[in-house]
User: Fold this.
Amino acid sequence: MTLPYSTLFSRVLNKINDPKELSLDENDLLEIYTERLHSVVGKPRVRRLFSSISLDDEIQEMTFALNNSVDEESDKDFVLEILSLGMAIEWLQPQVDSIMHTSVMIGGKEEKKILDNHKNMIDRLDSMKKEQNKMIRDYFIVSVLRKYFDKTSIELLENLKANYTTT
Assistant:
């Protein structure tokens, strides 16, 4: 299956609200998003979902096959959501880290004020990571159950057929 980067990047825009980043030149923004995409795909938890994946930065397109495909439309939606969520995490993580380091340098009342907002960002980051992990977990569980029940159903049908033909 192929998926244009533009489709994925537009999904990411729904998850990121950063006027400073959105004011960047289009080429700079594409470069940043492409780097984030590579970073997400390179993570073992995400990478193991795919039997094959290829990112072509020249034509801005990815080609992939999931290990346990459901159907083309569901697979595309799942991949879009997992990767866009991962890219949003890649966007937020450095901001959280930066504020943590800045607050230590400032100290005092200012530190407390910065850390108040920082807690919200940490909570959002944790929530996004949990959501992505749950989606990956649920996908894995459903695919294993599908394989198990498909196999069991086939064996059951074969046993019924064998019993029916012998009587």
The chain has six helices and three strands. The two ends are 47 Å apart (CA to CA). The helical segments are 5-13, 19-22, 26-41, 44-47, 72-106, 108-166. The chain has a mean pLDDT of 83.
